[in-house]
Amino acid sequence: MTFTVASINVNGIRAAVKKRSEENLGFLPWLDRTPADVVLMQEVRADEAQTQAALAPALDAGWHLVQAPAAAKGRAGVGILSRLPLRDVQIGFGHEDIAGHPGASAAAREFDGAGRYIEATVDLPGGDGGVGAVRVASLYLPSGSAKTAKQDEKYRFLDAFGPYLQARAAVGEPMIVGGDWNICHRRQDLKNWRTNRTKAGFLPDERAFMDSLLGVGLDGASQVGDVVDAGRAGNPGGSAGDFYGSVDYVPGDLAQARLAGGAAEEPGWVDVVRKLHPEAEGPYSWWTFRGQAFDTDAGWRIDLQVATRELAERARRAWVDRAEAYALRWSDHSPVMVEYGV
């Protein structure tokens, strides 16, 4: 049997479900026709009552919903829609001490009410390959903004989140963390990478974090600080360890340990779309609404499905469910889809 997961930043669920034109009927018709068994949503920007009202037709049709709204109204928020029941729901991460990473659990407490992480278990009926259940998580990693306090928040999140993911991979449970990661790991993930080397989402320390989690590409080398990255004059964003764009952030023990560890040599997590499309430019999942970015495909691949290694080996196909035209978009992101053989 197959198990298909979609990840989508809905850019506000109440806006996403609205009918925009006779041709663009919004999120709900997309949900009706999607092959996804689970939809991981980010940037829901609504409380539970508002989300349930927006998704009422889907819930009446049998979809199950769990949600982690942000304490700040109208901000962030993540949720999981599933055709199958969800159990053992967890909001936030790092609730237990993590061996080898003192301070990680305490650092994670800053984000408990931020509406940035939720996970749950889906039981799979009749799996013929030995996968009885899959843990699924929806992540909305802070976007950051270079030279503002938002970038400090992003670096603090990475400090706490990295050890949690490493610990989860070590458990050996089949798991998918899908969401808006707000980081382009490699140059092929970003159309205009040269002009974005000092912008949040493509800073050296953000990309080095992805190296520490996912390892490097098929060429076996990190792109952070390489000859191409630097160009003739050097990378204007510096190199790993500079934490370009921060204001008051001071890298502590967690950040220093990550830097010392470097890129993962035997990573426990796999970027599934990149695994199945190793040479592709993109496929991009986000395009600004401004200008002609969507029409010219000047996008960013910041929406990822990252799976534990054994589960990633079961991925059969992956694609971005890109709207056929700008006028048919109901979010500035497009769903990232992966079909797993379970």
From TrEMBL:
Coiled-coil residue spans: none
Pfam families given in the database record: Exo_endo_phos (PF03372)
Listed cofactors: Mg(2+); Mn(2+)
Residues carrying the site annotation Transition state stabilizer: N182
GO MF annotation list: double-stranded DNA 3'-5' DNA exonuclease activity; metal ion binding
Domain Endonuclease/exonuclease/phosphatase: 6-333
Site description Important for catalytic activity, residues in chain: D303
Co-factor: note: Probably binds two magnesium or manganese ions per subunit.
Marked site (Interaction with DNA substrate) residue numbers: H333
Protein residues bound to Mg(2+): N9, E43, D180, N182, D332, H333
Keyword set includes Kinase: no
Keywords: Hydrolase, Magnesium, Manganese, Metal-binding
Active site: Y140, D180, H333
InterPro entries linked to this entry: AP_endonuc_1, Endo/exonu/phosph_ase_sf, Endo/exonuclease/phosphatase, ExoIII-like
Swiss-Prot/TrEMBL GO biological process terms: DNA repair
SUPFAM superfamilies in UniProt: DNase I-like
Similarity remark: Belongs to the DNA repair enzymes AP/ExoA family.
Protein name in the entry: Exodeoxyribonuclease III
Organism, as annotated: Corynebacterium heidelbergense
